[in-house]
Specification:
Helices cover 43% and strands 11% of the residues. It contains 15 helices and 15 strands. β11 and β12 (223-227) form a beta hairpin. Residues 158-520 form the DNA topoisomerase I eukaryotic-type domain.
Length: 547
Amino acid sequence: MFTLLGGERKKKWTTLVHNGPMFPPLYEPHNIPISYINPINGETQKVYLNPKAEEIATLYAKILGHEILENKTFQKNFWKDWKETLGSDSPIKELRNCDFYEINRYYLNQKNILINLKPEEKEKIKKKKEAIEEKYQYCIIDGKKEKVGNFKIEPPGIFMGRGNNPNLGKIKRRINPEDVIINIGKEAPIPDTPSPNSDWKEVIHDETAIWLSSWKDTITRKNKYIFTSHEAGFKSKSDEKKFNRARELKKIIKKIHLNNNKNIDSTDEKTRQLATALYLIDNLALRVGSSKNKKETADTVGVTSLRVEHLKLLENNYIKLDFLGKDSIRYCNKVKVSQEIYRNLKEFQKDKARKDQLFNLINSQTLNEYLKSFMPKLTSKVFRTYNASETFQKGLNKIESEKMEKLSEGERINFLLELINQANAEVAILCNHQKAISSSFKNQIEKMDERIKKSKKLLKKAKTSKSKSKKERIEKIKKKIKLMQIKKKTKLKMKNVSLGTSKNNYIDPRIIIAFMKKYNIPVDKIFNKTLENRFDWAMNIENDFNF
């Protein structure tokens, strides 16, 4: 038996007390109209909206100028959802004829008022906010006070998403108590709802689950949860188990490779498909994938749901994979595979149409069963964690200690931090952890180039100097240039790479902590306070730890 989260159905607690989730404040109408150009007579009229339509219009007005407003999917979805709130008697018939400028100006004015408040006024607002939040920030598990993670339910919003998500522009409607399931101890008092006229969807007492509240996302219809904080005992134990399982995989990885390679050449096609899928999971850190309803959700895929159109066979055993992965992030990778894998993929494509399944004889369930035949509880995520940690460890092992000679303490630490970032980037690229390129990225690179250029001029000048300290000066500038060039190289490499996901979830923190101890790097240079507390279980590791 398993919990909703896929973990084993074991009793996790005996008593659980909490105050439920914190709901966002109710919307307060500002009664500012939008301007609408009548497409028939071309006249502009002021249109006052009902509170529900006005709230959504305000969300749109807040993002005026954002490039996402040019997206056709975004416009189509927003209009479809917004017009349902306008009412049948509304004169607004087309989104393109709406002008949200007045609401945008009001929003910016309100924002500036808050920015320009006196420090004592800001402090007063902050304390009031903290006092309201206090009761939701903690729960009591088996008599022990624990921090709750993200205890707030998100306010209504517009789905901005990532990548090419078909849900772009849809309205995330307000979550009410009637949407929320509370999980709490049998003897604990049931949390109050925000208003006396509301009630929870359901109150349960599931001692095998570690979530406190749950509801369905109004767009994706996926379950959302409120958990204890990453710093709490549940999360720490979960993290430690996860990374230890990845280390267990490392111990038998050669044996798995040996057996899987035999299956790659099996006479049974289903076995060949399973073995080929595992090869891709292991070497490219792909997820398993599952079948989906295209009309209801984004066309994201994993290994088992790859279609013929997602794979292109190139020359010399190279293949190109191009598809939308988790969160609609595009995965596009050209990579060389073994001759046997290339042969299999070619066979799996044979006599199939573009939309046909590449691995038509297997699914996520059969592939997961295949993984567990090698090791209990083995999943694609264990492979991702193993490969992420192994890649990171190898990256740190590339350190050339002689390059740190004669560096000042600050330069030495910066050099080591860049090495950590480069190794982290390798992992993020492997796992396809991406982010949008910052609008200021080009400007940042130009500033780095300017600093390098100035330093090179200083170097040229230093070489013609007759100073007694000429040699030391030249050496110092050279090292400074080298460090700046390393930083620039790292920044270019990471322009659309998200380091946080891999560092927080896939890299064994003991690798980082051991490295930190070995080279006397302050902990706050690597982990913020939250991560430091979350990985407290790993802090006593010796400096010679190797994943």
